[in-house]
User: Fold this.
Amino acid sequence: MQDEPVSKTRRKREMHELQELGSALVALPESVLAALRLAGDLREAVLEARRMKSHEAKRRQLQYIGRLMREMDPGPIRAQLAAVEGGSAQAAAAHRRLEAWRERLLADDEALTSFAAEHPGADLQKMRSLIRNTRKEQKQGKPPRAYRELFRFIKECCQ
Assistant:
């Protein structure tokens, strides 16, 4: 049997999906974009689109990016983008867990015991000192230097 020809509607839908994928690439932060493995001409087109100010010029550049992606398999690009977006959700959840630990440690002295049980390698003397300094800092209304230090220390212990 012969392959059925692809309808014009389906081709247009695929082109628009590739343009949206290109738009998502353009919207990424510079550091994340640098970490993605993109072909040289596609990377240059995305960087050029980021520099454009004119709406019409950016629209045409996104069409160009879509055309470049039609010539390659967009699957790996989609997978990398999904990993980045999923990673940021995971990072946000991890950040919330660390903040919850910090709040528990500041609110309750018994939380230090449970933290020590979960993280046996933690330097409890330094942890007590940071908790004491943070409480003192909050009581005096000082800038949250020790509060941030406590967060960094908890992050180191949880890794």
User: Anything to note?
Assistant: The CA atoms of residues 5 and 11 lie 10 Å apart. DSSP finds eight helices and no strands in the chain.
